From TrEMBL:
Residues 134-406 form the Protein kinase domain. It comes from the Eukaryota. ATP binds at K162. Keywords: ATP-binding, Kinase, Nucleotide-binding, Serine/threonine-protein kinase, Transferase. InterPro entries: Kinase-like_dom_sf, Prot_kinase_dom, Protein_kinase_ATP_BS, RBK1/2/STUNTED, Ser-Thr/Tyr_kinase_cat_dom, Ser/Thr_kinase_AS. The keyword Repeat does not apply. Belongs to the protein kinase superfamily. This is Protein kinase domain-containing protein. It comes from Canavalia gladiata (Sword bean). The lineage of its organism: Eukaryota, Viridiplantae, Streptophyta, Embryophyta, Tracheophyta.
Length: 449
């Protein structure tokens, strides 16, 4: 039933968009032969769209579907068959039917390019050559189920290739592979890592742009490196919030990432953050308020209480994780330390006392902007509230961080709902509650080196 509802939602979205469904209204203006051609193309593209949508829903709702079939249908759909069958003419002055349903001159090159596929299917040979045969010298990250190699295409573009290891080719990992393709293939934002393509020959591969600086986690916690300065940390915090805001509000589907953490935030050469790893992502139709998910998956120290206690997932789940990420950026501390104390449990009493200077990474030696620190700390304190009702949306978080009004009275909780420190869930509570059933899959996630 969940899949059926998702399919109905998707097809309704397709029919309401400026796509092939608008073509039929204009067929009376065309010659009979042309009209018949457009009808055939419409039916063909609609069927392809439906099949592709169903397969994408299968991936995003963890329903079984063959990897090769999903990729094949997505590839066929993205290659814009209407350009193959439509009766466009390169001759000047001829009337054509544009995709938005209007009759006019041929679209310019920019509009044409905007409808081209955003990712491609690579051959195994291309990736093999690009990574020097997947050599150990090109290996930049390794986990329990995937390996990441850097490479260079023959055109000169630097790439990162994520390869699902043969020992982890189980059903769950293949579903995560499908989910990542189905989700990230629809997003286009400077603060989201762009997917260049995939490969299903001789294994499962995802191809991304290479993030030359690696992950935020590696730069924050590698003792061999100089500490990130405050200006860079602030830029990372703002950019990540913008990317998350896009996922929640900006793209055509609301996407819940479910695994926002420093190791999944990659950095470009100029330290622009990009959200990556959509293996656990869920898209949330506008009619739905939340997902209910089991088993629980994610990363210790980042999971919102309502998620690991009840399996409830919505935008506020990501907001909580982002709050932990903010604390990590400010303090330079890991989400869980050697004593199993979570970062947010450590920071909560400090925030309550208003002694925010104690949060700051001592390696900065006081070199930080006090006003910016106050804004980031205030935003973090709201994000990590145990009650999702009293957490802000990511849009509100972004406003606070970007010179918006910090109205403490607006966010003051009623006395009957104020959170006691001992009521704040920490890592030790999570371990107790879910010691036998908690999924460890994301503890094996890739971290760039």
């Amino acid at each position: 039933m969940e899949l059926l509802l998702a399919w109905v939602y998707e097809t309704k979205h397709l029919s309401s968009s400026n796509g092939p469904s608008t073509w039929l209204f204009f067929t009376p203006h065309l010659q009979t032969k042309k009209a018949l051609t457009f009808v055939c193309v419409y039916v063909w593209e609609t069927l392809l769209s439906y099949f592709s949508s169903v397969l994408e829903c299968c991936a995003l709702h963890e329903t079984e579907s063959p990897v090769w079939l999903f990729v094949a249908m997505r590839y066929i759909r993205s290659n814009s068959l209407k350009r193959l069958f439509s009766l466009r003419r390169r001759s000047s002055g001829e009337q054509i039917l544009s995709p938005n349903g209007s009759i006019g001159e041929e679209n310019d090159e920019h509009e044409e390019a905007s409808r081209r596929p955003t990712w491609k299917c690579f051959s195994y040979e291309e990736l093999f050559v690009a990574t020097n045969g997947f050599s150990s010298e090109n290996l930049v990250g390794k986990g329990g189920y995937a390996e990441v190699y850097k490479g260079r295409l023959k055109e000169g573009e630097e790439i990162a290739v994520k390869r699902l290891t043969r020992t982890s080719r189980d059903e769950r990992k293949e579903k995560e592979f499908l989910t990542e393709i189905g989700t990230i293939g629809h997003v286009h934002h400077s603060n989201v890592l762009p997917l260049l393509g995939c490969c299903i020959d001789n294994g499962l591969y995802l191809v991304f742009e290479l993030s030359s600086r690696g992950s935020v986690a590696s730069l924050l916690h590698d003792e061999k490196l100089s500490p990130l300065d405050w200006k860079t940390r602030h830029k990372i915090a703002i950019g990540t919030a913008r990317g998350l805001h896009y996922l929640h509000k900006g793209c055509k589907r609301r996407i819940i990432h479910r695994d926002i953490k420093a190791s999944n935030i990659l950095l470009t050469e100029d330290f622009e953050p990009q959200i990556s790893d959509f293996g656990l992502a869920k898209w949330l139709p506008s009619q739905w308020t939340h997902h209910s998910i089991a088993p629980i998956e994610g990363t210790f120290g980042h999971l919102a209480p309502e998620y690991y206690l009840h399996g409830v997932v919505d935008e506020k789940t990501d907001v909580f994780a982002f709050g932990v990420f903010l604390l990590e950026v400010i303090s330079g501390r890991k989400p869980v330390d050697g004593s199993h104390q979570s970062l947010h449990s450590w920071a909560k009493p400090i925030l309550n006392k208003g002694e925010i200077e104690e949060l700051v990474d001592p390696r900065l030696e006081g070199a930080y902007d006090v006003t910016q620190l106050k804004r980031l700390a205030f935003a973090a304190s709201l994000c990590i509230r145990a009650s999702s009702t009293w957490r802000p949306t990511i849009n509100q978080v972004l406003e606070i961080m970007e010179e918006g009004e910090m109205d403490t009275e607006k966010w003051k909780m009623p006395e009957e709902e104020e959170e006691e420190e001992e009521e704040f869930w920490g890592f030790e509570d999570l371990e107790y509650e879910y010691d036998s059933s908690f999924s460890m899959s994301l503890l094996d996630s890739i971290e760039s080196t």
